[in-house]
Design brief:
The protein is an alpha+beta fold. It is built from 11 helices and 9 strands. It starts with a helix and ends with a helix.
Length: 369
């Protein structure tokens, strides 16, 4: 009876919410694993309800809100990873990040008035595109190290574009937006906001978050788009300056986290102060791809020019333990395979005699019948 009572309470709450959001109707998207809303009167579909409808939902019973808060707190506890460098050096600071802003409430603004391509002279081959290698003829692997002319500001630049309104399920994120130099604004055919975990999961494995084709092998210098054969989530950041102060190590961790956590969720940071380099591991490879383009040739708190390339996940502190466990598992697998082969050989030696007596017994039983 208690179980049925709980079900009835949940059903009544769901019916109450459905009544409050009318004429909107809620549906669940299997691909993105989230709810979306449809208005049959205006034939409009959106991920977020209008503000006037959200205002009605404030009358939802308090016990339901408490259950949601408890559930979110439990999920947050599960996501915590004690012992990371971020917790060691940053402590409570990492809890201050989070809100990405409601980008669907405003159109994306133009980051520059005209394309930066007009600032450079034409070179022969600029317009010749190689389909096989997915690049233009004059694209160079190593570009000259110059400070980036523009930088993306997610709080100001994020907004809805044509991709959100017309190509909701097939568009990619704007590469020029990540670099801070998109001149299209709301007319752009790519997304102008930071990627969420659900959007990252929807990106095809052979494409990066900007729609560029990934390759079977990584470049020798660990630059470029990356390889689809390895799910790399770690960036190697170099050529930055260590701060001078009472605790430069803690300050450097805070600076790296502040600049790179703006582009996605960070799992851990591993700093090499003597080399002026660090490994930054993101929660998803698409977030790392976005951060790589957004921070390339940018500066931190000083006027340095960063070099951002793909890093090796094995460089993180916990990678040694994982690698050791993998080696132990492989050794155990080889030992089991050796035992199985020995057992098969022993059975092969015994089998001829056993088969002879087996068939002889069957023959004798037939004679007696």
């Amino acid at each position: 009876a208690e179980y049925m009572g709980n079900n009835q309470e949940k059903m009544s709450t769901a019916e109450e919410i459905a009544r409050l959001i009318l004429p909107w109707k809620a549906f669940f998207d299997d691909r993105y694993q989230r709810n979306y809303y449809y208005n049959p009167e205006t034939n409009e579909t959106t991920w977020e309800l209008p503000k006037d409808v959200l205002a009605r939902l404030k009358v939802v019973p308090k016990d339901v809100e408490d259950e949601d808060e408890e559930r979110s707190e439990d999920n947050d506890d599960e996501k915590k990873q004690p012992g990371t460098n971020m917790e060691k050096f940053l402590g409570e600071t990492i809890k201050e990040g989070g809100s990405r802003g409601e980008y669907m409430s405003r159109p994306a603004r133009k980051q520059v008035e005209r394309s930066l391509a007009t600032e450079f002279s034409y070179r022969q081959g600029d317009e010749e595109y190689n389909i096989w290698y997915d690049k233009f003829l004059t694209d160079k692997k190593e570009k000259d190290r110059e400070a980036a002319l523009t930088r993306c500001d997610p709080e100001k630049d994020s907004g809805y574009t044509k991709a959100d309104l017309m190509e909701k399920y097939s568009a990619y994120f704007c590469l020029h937006f990540a670099r801070g130099c998109c001149c299209e604004g709301a007319n752009c055919r790519f997304y102008h906001h930071l990627p969420s975990k659900e959007e990252c999961d929807g990106i095809d494995q052979v494409k990066d978050i900007f729609g560029r084709t990934r390759f079977a092998s990584s470049r020798e210098d660990n630059g470029g788009i990356g390889s689809f054969m390895k799910e790399t989530r770690t960036l190697h950041v170099a050529d930055f300056r260590m701060p001078s102060g009472n605790d430069p190590l803690r300050q450097m961790y805070e600076i790296l986290w502040r600049h790179f956590s703006a582009w996605g969720d960070i799992e851990d940071i591993h700093l090499f102060p003597n080399r002026g380099a660090a490994y930054i591991k993101f929660a998803h490879r698409c977030m790392a791809e976005f951060a790589k383009e957004a921070m390339m040739h940018q500066g931190l708190d000083s006027s340095e020019i960063l070099t951002v390339k793909w890093g090796d996940d094995s460089a993180m502190p916990d990678a040694g333990e994982k690698e050791a466990r993998e080696v132990e598992a492989k050794i155990e697998e080889k030992l089991q395979e050796g035992r199985r082969r020995k057992r098969v050989k022993r059975e092969a030696k015994i089998r001829p005699e056993a088969e002879y007596f087996k068939h002889k017994a069957m023959y004798l039983s037939l004679i007696h019948i």
